[in-house]
Amino acid sequence: MLKTNESGSAFGVHHPDITAGYHGMSLRDYFAAATFPVFIGVINDIELSTRIMQAAKLAYLCSDALIKARDTD
Questions:
Q1: Where exactly are the structural domains of the chain?
Q2: Which contacts of 25-28 are long-range, i.e. CB under 8 A and separated by 24 or more positions?
């Protein structure tokens, strides 16, 4: 499996009580969550479980494109 650019934490915080290594939601996950509703709304010709999986895959493809565009500037 290829290493995916998670692009760091979406909501970076530093708190002494938080376990080391925990940085919350990645920016990639945040972008995917933000775009998922768009894709779930436009895919409607297949059964629900397949629709959800297809929408999730598209959301992560979109997220990866957003991170790539962000990193190319």
A1: 27-71
A2: 27/67, 28/4, 28/60, 28/63, 28/64, 28/67
